[in-house]
Amino acid sequence: MPLETMEPNPVWVEDAYSDTVDTLEEHGEELTFKVWGGDWCKDCRSQLPDFGAALEAAGVPDENVEHYAVEKEDDGSKVGPKVEEYDIELIPTVVVEKDGEEIARFVEEEPVPISVYLADEIEAALA
Length: 127
Description:
The protein is of the alpha+beta class. Helices cover 31% and strands 23% of the residues. Strand 3 (71-72) and strand 4 form a beta hairpin.
């Protein structure tokens, strides 16, 4: 089930992130983006719409973006599809894979937007 928070932000400005969009566009067809989040989560609601807009601007195929809805237990732990397999503790978490191998991971908060962070990591991994 798609995460509502991945709906692209309609006011996101592609031109402000042209290098990021170029990187995602260049590699988007060969990568899989696995997104863990929750529509209830304020960090997800603030960060994922811009990431969705960046993926859309880069033309990343929908089938290359996997959504995993996460719930929070009373003790704060996260539960949901593949949470244990991918060691998901904080959301949003985005794992980027190429040929089934993890090449980049964004976890909850960095000093730059998700798309910028991952584009830098993708470039470093594939250089």
